[in-house]
Amino acid sequence: MRLLIFLIVISSSQVFSAGGNCGVYLSEEGGEKGVCDNVDIDHLDLPSLQRGVKLYMNYCFGCHSLEYARYNRVAADLGIPDDLFMDNLVFGDQKPGDLMTIAMKSEDSEQWFGVPPPDLTLVTSLRSSEWVYTYLKSFYVDNSRPLGVNNKVYENVGMPNVLANLQGVQRSVCKLVPDIAENSGLKQDPLTGEIIYKEKCGFLEVDLNSGELDEEAFNENLRDLTNFLAYMADPIKSERESLGVYVILYLILFTIFSYLLYREFKKEVH
Predict the structure, then answer these.
(1) Residue 93's Cα: distance from chain center in Å?
(2) 27 φ/ψ sector (left φ>0, alpha ψ -120 to 50, else beta)
């Protein structure tokens, strides 16, 4: 019984940790605000993790450290030789065994951005992978902000859109969408039977040919980056899950033998 309760608790925690609250984000399909986009996270997909660390080191590492990890550990986990990793992804005199810290001082970054950019080693554990993925694709032009951009997931964020050259210029626009009745059906004109549309604002739309990648390619890059950050938050996930199978099997066998031993003791008592 205790084993069953333990398994239920673990599976429930995984369910509730998935997804996340994405603020005022509104999907292209017109979904409800606050629902994050899904992203496929796979710690065993080494090509994706390798592309993800390349993106991180080129676009994110200037401001956001990964100070709970070491270069050589990440390189080993991702199947990248130390010399190749250090020569192509590290732009300084760091050693393979060093922690992945950044040169930017917190007092300088606070002056430039308002607050020091956080370390991102555990960001997917704090927010969820879906939140991070949706956040990264939700920057849009907002000339009222100091850096000229805002974010649908994290309003009034003090971060620039570092992936703008890949994604392109994205704007918040209004569109005509079918009106929904109280019974969740589409509203129709009682005379003509035609569907009634209403204007809905908050959709994100990229200016045509303003970025290096199309939407599909950009989303795939974001998936790789998010996949890498999910690995950083739990680098031993694959080993832990494989070991967990043996632990559960041991507990089951232990329970069976304990019950048989209990029956033998009970015979002696009577």
Answers:
(1) 30
(2) beta
Give 201's pLDDT tier (boundaries 50, 70, 90).
Answer: confident
Residue 61 contacts by C-beta under 8 Å, 6 or more apart in sequence?
Answer: 100, 102
Contact 58, 88 (CB under 8 A): no
- Residue 6 pLDDT greater than 90, yes or no: no
**How far is 99 from 93, CA to CA, in rounded Å?**
12
How many angstroms separate the CA atoms of 188 and 179, rounded? 8
Assign 55 to helix, strand or coil. helix
Q: Phi, psi at residue 109, to the nearest 5°?
A: -65, -35
Q: Is the overall model pTM greater than 0.85, yes or no?
A: no
| DSSP collapsed to 3 states, 154-209 | CCCCCCCCCCHHHHCCEEEEEEEEECECCCCCECECCCCCCECEEEEEEEEEECCC
> CB neighbours of 246 closer than 8 A, spacing ≥ 6?
none
Query: What's the CA gap between 49 and 43, in Å, rounded?
Result: 8
Length of the chain equals 270
Domain architecture of the chain: domains with CATH: 2-157+215-235 (1.10.760.10)
